[in-house]
Specification:
The protein is 14% helix and 32% strand. It has one domain. The protein is α/β, with parallel strands linked by helices. A hairpin with a 4-residue loop joins strand 5 and strand 6. Strands 1-6-5-4-3-2 form a 6-stranded mixed sheet, with helices on one face. The protein contains 2 helices and 6 strands; from the N terminus they run H-E-E-E-H-E-E-E.
């Protein structure tokens, strides 16, 4: 989800609620402790120099169990961050603490913002020697008459 999308969604909500992809809710008393732009300059394993940008939202649970972040307040935080930091309209990445700091993509399911699990990937598969995955065939689905005497398949 891009920053412009969350800004369009927030005014229509009564509450800001986040849930993990597995359905577990982020506690209602979460805080958004950071909004920022992260720029990552790197070289992939194929030698290509790359640059990625994300808007980073950091969620944090404190011991103030009565705290509730309202949509207008989050929208104001985002607008202030855009103004002061020059944040661009790029994809949002959410940091949230579980066993360690996790990084998540963000989606909206019509009611809640959903923290989608992220995975690693090779960006240069053609250059780093990853073998092409062979298509697997189920032997039970192969016809019993695929090889006949004199058919040239044996």
């Amino acid at each position: 989800m891009k920053l412009s999308s969350i800004k369009e969604i927030l005014p229509s909500l009564e509450n800001v609620e986040f849930q993990l992809e597995n359905g577990t809710m982020v506690p209602e008393h979460f805080h958004v402790t950071e909004v920022g732009m992260i720029t990552k300059n790197f070289i992939d394993c194929g030698g290509v120099i790359r640059k990625e940008k994300v808007v980073n939202l950091q969620l944090w649970n404190a011991n103030d169990l009565e705290h509730r972040l309202k949509p207008a307040k989050l929208l104001n935080i985002i607008r202030l961050s855009e103004e002061k930091l020059g944040i661009e309209d790029v994809e949002i990445e959410v940091e949230y603490q579980s066993n360690t700091i996790g990084k998540y993509d963000l989606e909206f399911n019509g009611k809640n913002f959903v923290l989608k699990n992220k995975t690693t990937a090779c960006l240069a598969e053609d250059a780093c020697g990853i073998p092409i995955e062979k298509q697997k065939k189920n032997l039970a689905e192969l016809s019993a008459n695929t090889c006949t005497p004199g058919g040239g398949c044996c």
